[in-house]
Amino acid sequence: MIKKKTDFVTLLFFENLLKHxxxxxxxxxxxxxxxxxxxxxxxxxxxxxxxxxxxxxxxKRLAATMGIPLHHLTIGQQIHSGNVAVISEELRGKxxxxxxxxxxxxxxxxxxxxxxxxxxxVADCVPMLFFDPVRNVIGVAHxxxxxTLQSVALHTVSAMENGFGSSPHNxxxxxxxxxxxxxxxxxxxxxxxxxxxxxxxxEYILNESRDGKGYLDLxxxxxxxxxxxxxxxxxxxxxxxxxxxxPDVFFSYRHQQGETGRFGAGISIS
Length: 270
Ligand SMILES: [Zn+2]
What we know:
Layout: E1 2-5, E2 10-13, H1 15-18, E3 23-28, H2 52-66, E4 73-75, E5 84-86, E6 108-111, E7 117-122, E8 126-132, E9 137-143, H3 145-149, H4 152-164, E10 172-175, E11 185-186, H5 188-197, E12 205-206, E13 214-216, H6 218-228, E14 236-238, E15 263-269
Parallel strand pairs: 4-7, 5-6, 10-14
Antiparallel strand pairs: 1-2, 2-3, 3-15, 6-9, 7-15, 8-9, 8-10, 11-13, 12-13
């Protein structure tokens, strides 16, 4: 990933997506915004208890930095599911100003409509950006452990295939910063579900203790889903940055024990 510091905000970009001039994309960080503790400072989430006017100032600043109109930002009411929404022209800008108006019950979005910036909000979950330069289709998804179990990454690729005729071989993916196996301790109830859904994958749970806890590698599980979906490894760029280990740069739900903001991952056909 490439880091760029502007007058106010610091943004991250995937090198594989930057090669394509026909799209814009970003991963935001927590620096350069208006929100105060514990949302300091570029919190993009309207649903986390922060002052809405500050969140809107943050979103406007991010949009201006990217050269994207605020009303192009299109956001979902994320529920940790495997659901994917196909975003048509009429849905442009849903959720850009009010959480109630965000696209309902979805954790991933795909579109081929220009000037719609699909945005996913995260604080430890794995944010993923997708682009098929052949069919000119974009997608976003986020996966925590629940979304991973429900194969949200796989469903996003399927939605690009079924809705727009994308071939997985052409799809480029960026996996952004998320909580790493260094920090993501989970309990036996999560581990047993992971084992049920992925019975042959032993490498997703690390350092299991006698009391049944272990450390979950969300990135590895989602990488495998993308490879299973037919995406080529050379087309997947991984940030490999732990949000919980870098709480000064990223919002981390685990690090701040639930009281925190959200950073964003967005992509738009310009
Ligand atoms: Zn870590």
